[in-house]
Amino acid sequence: EIVEAYLGRTVKNTVVIVPAYFNDSQEIKDVGIIVRLNIIRITNEPTTTAIAYGLHKKATSVGEKNVLIFDLGVGTFDVSLSTIEEGIFEVKTTVMILKGISAN
């Protein structure tokens, strides 16, 4: 309702962004059905960040780019390495570090 009020029109399709290590996509799809939304894609935060960066840099970028993404979340610190080339975004790896846990 909030989004529809802001946009001034009905929303039927959506992309859902989840944390880096979210693993219950079926539950999100089920909720989408309940609230009558067509969830066209479920993507994690590092991928979404890479896409936003790639779209922002598209006008000035040529060739393959490796992008290191830092996600300073509430309970975790995620680092992802992504490659962007010709509109294709590929997350190579994501590492999650729990905050407050030291390697020492």
Automatic annotation (TrEMBL):
It holds the Pfam family HSP70. The keyword Transcription regulation does not apply. The keyword Transferase does not apply. One of its GO terms (molecular function) is ATP-dependent protein folding chaperone. InterPro entries: ATPase_NBD, Hsp_70_fam. Keywords: ATP-binding, Nucleotide-binding. SUPFAM superfamilies: Actin-like ATPase domain. Belongs to the heat shock protein 70 family. This is Heat shock protein 70. The lineage of its organism: Eukaryota, Viridiplantae, Streptophyta, Embryophyta, Tracheophyta.
